[in-house]
Design brief:
α3 packs parallel to α5. It contains nine helices and ten strands. 39% of the residues lie in helices and 25% in strands. The protein is globular. The protein has 250 residues and is α/β, with parallel strands linked by helices. The strands form two sheets. It has a six-stranded mixed sheet, with helices on both faces. The protein folds into two domains: 164 residues, Rossmann fold; 74 residues, no CATH class. The protein binds adenosine-5'-triphosphate and magnesium ion. The site of adenosine-5'-triphosphate has 11 residues, from β2 and α1.
Amino acid sequence: MTADILVAEGLSVHYGAFCAVDALDLKVRKGSVHSLIGPNGAGKTTAFNALCGMARTSRGTITYDGERIERMPVARRSRKGLARSFQITNLFFEVDVRENVRLACQSARGWRSFDFLSQCASQSAMHESVDEVLAWAGLQPKADSLAGELSHGEQRRLEIALAVASSPTVLFLDEPTAGMGAEDISFAKLLISNLSKQRRMTIVLIEHNMSLVMDISDRITVLQQGRKVAEGDPESIRKDPVVRAAYLGE
Ligand SMILES: Nc1ncnc2c1ncn2[C@@H]1O[C@H](COP(=O)(O)OP(=O)(O)OP(=O)(O)O)[C@@H](O)[C@H]1O
Ligand SMILES: [Mg+2]
């Protein structure tokens, strides 16, 4: 058994002739928080999309839990435990918070059973997990509010909660704190590190907030123009002269 749950080797993604991700090697350790950082347009979201199955891998391989997945459709990858949140919010605004979470739990389970007894059993299990997710995200007091009425920070938190509702093995978070105020950022930071430290979930994180990245990442990969320019723990990334010049603007 390997400690690396997700491995990309020579991963490239092209949009027509343009190479957005260029021969990326990436090893994500099980249970770690692994961040992708880099300037706008570096290829972070594209790399994410390729790992989740939402962008076509043009070259290279992706291995998840020992299985090659680079040609596997996105729905199958998500059933196998890869889940993602979006850079742009993806909620049902006209529906209340509880229902948003319930729909996410339900779609994660697929509701394939038509057997009445097992459906009753899974209905009550479902209520428990909806409440658990709401409590975990601190959204219980807002359970009956429409998602569209939440503050921006609460909406972003609900986004994370929806991705967590499927109990994924690997959770991809694309700029989860974008547009959040300081208080919401510290809560989101707690939530994310709690997923990794207490639930042993593997987190792949894209984030522009450097202090959050430095505080919660086990490993950081720095991308620039589709290529990996540095990789290491927060301390070595902070000191890396290439990163300081290219990204931290020093
Ligand atoms: N669907 C697409 N078609 C063509 N080019 C694209 C597409 N999506 C992204 N690109 C281009 O690929 C490059 C990488 O984009 P990507 O969105 O992956 O960057 P990013 O690192 O996530 O940037 P940001 O920090 O702004 O979110 C950019 O030059 C972008 O313009
Ligand atoms: Mg992006």
